[in-house]
Amino acid sequence: MKKTRSLNAERIKLMTELGIASINRCTKDEEDAITEVQKQGYPIPDGIFAKKDGKYYKCTYDEISDAEITKLLTYRVVSYLRIIRTSVIGFGIIVSALLIYIAVILTSGI
Question: Quick one: which H or E segment has residue 24?
Fold first, then answer.
């Protein structure tokens, strides 16, 4: 049960980062109902969780189709690949400059 909760929390976190879901604070009536359910010994319902401040929050999913989610993920992957490519090119330029600098120092006889 603990592992499922941590996977659920990770899934909710990723979905909010992608803009597929949002996290909203529960109303007072919802918080009272959740407290009552917990007093009866039942677990908190899926999509609802408590933060460190002691308040309850719920995850609401945006109305988005699987095709749109796939497109969004594809665009994110392309964006991340561009960032990686730029980083590798920058790293290559820095390493090349250092190697040229070292070669110049070694050939100058210092």
Answer: strand 21-25
Cα 38 from Cα 15, distance rounded (Å): 26
pTM for this model (two decimals): 0.55
Angle, nearest 10°, between helix axes 66-108 and 2-18?
A: 80
Residue 97 three-state SS: helix
With a CB cutoff of 8 Å and minimum separation 6, the contacts of 97 are none
| Digit-coded pLDDT (tens) for 82-109 | 999 999 999 999 999 999 999 999 898 6
Q: Report the chain's terminal Cα–Cα distance, integer Å.
A: 66
